[in-house]
Amino acid sequence: MSALPLTGKVALITGSSRSIGAAVAERLAADGANVVINYVNNASAAQEVADRINSKGAGQAKIIQADVSSVEAGKELVKNTLEAFQKIDILVPNAGVLENKTLEQITEEHFDTHFNVNVKGVLFLVQAAAPHMTAGGRVILFSTGVTSMSLVTPNYLVYAASKGAVEQMTRVLAKDLGQRQITVNTVSPGPTDTPLFRNGKTEDQIKFFANLSPQNRLGQCEDIASAVAFLSRADSQWVNGQNIRINGGMVV
Fold first, then answer.
1. Is position 39 annotated as part of the catalytic site?
2. Is residue 2 situated within a structural domain?
3. Are 177 and 183 in contact (CB under 8 A)?
4. Of residues 53, 159, 185, 229, which has the active-site annotation?
5. Strand 183-189 and strand 138-142: pairing?
6. Which domain does 236 fall in, by range?
7. Distance of CA 113 to CAs 40, 85, 218, Å?
8. Contact 188, 223 (CB under 8 A)
9. Residue 213 forms part of a structural domain
10. N or C: which end of the chain has fewer CB within 10 A?
11. Total number of domains in the chain
């Protein structure tokens, strides 16, 4: 029997106690990686994800608490991951925040919250992890289809700006870490069926977004996890500095 494609690899996925992050952790573990389930407050949800993974006998999982909006907490998360698994091969800063406000509603706190989690925390987590990654390492960041949608609405202003910054970081980090044979890519999900997406929307609104796809459905967390799994593997080695939009053809 051949080894699973990520056997022997270690993956750190932030914000992985639920939704897309949990699906990514479960998929990478199913492909053989040992994974760190990072959470902020909900230890029981993180442990449930870890228990599902550990019951299947492929990659193993451990949970580690950290608020990755804090630079120091991000450094501690990397340290704890190394103590648990001795290395980091795959880094997936999935944790993010989205709270919609229009221009007149934006406050400094709102701005700082989004950029601390979505941009600063991501950048400094990569900085902390990169020295411990070797050739063949993978960094997979998260943006959003909002950055390229013509239908974007005014209340996505700060969120879209923060994710635009992530896309630019991807381009430059790919040149930097690529010199060490570490690839850096971004995935940009379209509307994905998560509790966060459904929050505050009517069924008609949800149907509207589903119908924007030629397949007439929302994305599923597993759709996003499949793309992350590909980017994590050895056969994605020539994909670097790219923004892969995962939206079923909603944005082309």
1. no
2. no
3. yes
4. 159
5. parallel
6. 10-194+221-246
7. 15, 31, 27
8. no
9. no
10. N
11. 1
CA-closest candidate to residue 96, choices 111, 110, 117 = 117
> Which amino acid, residue 104?
E
Nearest C-alpha neighbor of 182 from the set 137, 222, 149, 140: 137
Q: Is 64 exposed, middle or buried (0-12, 13-18, 19+ CB in 10 A)?
A: buried
Strand extents, DSSP E, the chain: 10-13, 34-39, 61-65, 90-92, 138-142, 183-189, 243-246
38: in domain: yes
Tokens coding 19 = 């939704």
Q: In one letter, which amino acid is 191?
A: P
Q: What is the pTM of this model?
A: 0.96
Cβ(125)–Cβ(68) below 8 Å: yes
Would you give the DSSP letter of residue 145? G
pLDDT in tens for each of the 252 residues of the chain? 568 999 999 999 999 999 999 999 999 999 999 999 999 999 999 999 999 999 998 999 999 999 999 999 999 999 999 999 999 999 999 999 999 999 999 999 999 999 999 999 999 999 999 999 999 999 999 999 999 999 899 999 999 999 999 999 999 999 999 999 999 999 999 999 998 888 888 999 999 999 999 999 999 999 999 999 999 999 999 999 999 999 999 988
